[in-house]
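Need a sequence for this fold. Nothing fancy.
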């Protein structure tokens, strides 16, 4: 069994949980990072069953102190990461730009973008060197086009795409690669949250209700299976590129 370690953020539910479990089933030790919850507690024994050195790590990406503590916990398990999957993200606030308060907008940028940089920078000594490290950023169609009332999410995801490209550029001589992947419309808690937004705040609400009711949302486990090869085996030639799961 391989002794490689993968860190997956947002691993307590949805796509992050499905990816974490699939990586463990493939024999990789997984450090499942998410905010403290019963879901995070429940994933650890499932991971350990397949990869005994796996563990869950509580972390709130909105809090720098929590990120620092999580990195200390990660260091107790390994000093080399084969990869990071930056999956954690928040859709809120879903409001028109003129109505959203500054604190909520800034919190979204912190969780979706600044927290990614903070966490990765603190883990920098565990990446690359003699052994290859692959970083995968979960992007979104919202990184390429504006969506009414999603300004913070669109901006943060567009920023993540460029962040991944910058990491690919700066990491290429250190055996670090980075890609971003748009997962399509996945049946997750985020989709449920979107469907609960008041229609006056989100003009496209009915579109997302229809996606759900007409069965167009894809199961997290299906998307995780489509992403696995990119997460674990993308090449240096692919580093810096953006992929869409629907094109794989």
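Here you go.
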């Amino acid at each position: 069994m391989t002794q490689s370690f993968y860190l997956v953020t947002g691993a307590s539910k949805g796509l992050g949980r499905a990816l974490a479990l699939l990586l463990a089933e493939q024999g990789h030790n997984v450090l499942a990072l998410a905010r403290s919850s019963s879901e995070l507690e429940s994933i650890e024994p499932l991971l350990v069953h397949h990869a005994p050195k796996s563990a869950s790590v509580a972390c709130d990406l909105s809090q720098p102190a929590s990120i620092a503590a999580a990195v200390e916990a990660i260091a107790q398990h390994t000093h080399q990461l084969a990869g990071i999957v930056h999956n954690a993200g928040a859709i809120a606030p879903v409001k028109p730009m003129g109505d959203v308060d500054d604190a909520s907008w800034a919190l979204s940028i912190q969780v979706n973008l600044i927290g990614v940089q903070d966490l990765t920078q603190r883990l920098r000594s565990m990446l690359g060197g003699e052994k290859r490290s692959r970083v995968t950023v979960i992007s979104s169609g919202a990184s390429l086009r504006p969506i009414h009332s999603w300004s913070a999410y669109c901006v943060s995801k567009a920023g993540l795409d460029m962040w991944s490209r910058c990491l690919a550029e700066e990491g290429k001589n250190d055996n670090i690669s980075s890609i971003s992947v748009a997962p399509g419309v996945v049946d997750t808690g985020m989709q449920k949250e979107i469907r609960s937004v008041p229609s006056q705040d989100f003009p496209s609400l009915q579109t997302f209700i229809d996606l759900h009711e007409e069965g167009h949302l894809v199961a997290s486990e299906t998307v995780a299976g489509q992403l696995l090869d990119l997460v674990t085996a993308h090449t240096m030639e692919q580093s810096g590129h953006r992929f869409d799961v629907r094109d794989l």
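For context: The two ends are 28 Å apart (CA to CA).
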